[in-house]
Task: structure prediction
Amino acid sequence: MVVYDIGNVIWAARIWWALRYYGHDKVYVLEGGAAAWEAAGKPMTTDVVEPIAKTFVPRARPEMRASKAQVHAAIADSNTTIIETRRESGIRGSGGTVQGAYWLPSTTVFAPKDNYRALISEAELDGYLRDIGVEEAGQLVAT
Amino acid sequence: MALYLHGYDHVAMYDGSWTEWQQDDANPRDDVDTLLARSPKQ
Result:
């Protein structure tokens, strides 16, 4: 399954997460979304697609979600890093964040490329994560 | 998604919202300036 949005990947990633959560293993996000696809001269259509019905049996992955109790536990667990992903304006407007969280807004992982936003390199992401004390063996909770 | 793509398997998304979190005083919180002071500049 390939999912896409207009090009910033934020909403496609949200659907990707949900499908992964429900147990679908072959879900992919189209880098650059419709903007990059169209700019590359790939075929577009305004036809309404009539999909062939198939059965999908969900097998949820509860480890991909953190309950409120788990976030409470994470606050007290030095092996778990809590990440606040909202923009600064959104955090200020709402009056705060979860105690002990580090700020890594979702826009951090994207960089402008042509007419869309592409994922940053692994080295760049690793740099950001090292800066907030994350190691691959650790746990992450995104809020 | 980016974290999974880069190989971080132990990532969970909070199953709630800030709006819900802040409605209960039992949920500990920081103000935004504390958050920014703790975090590297982006």
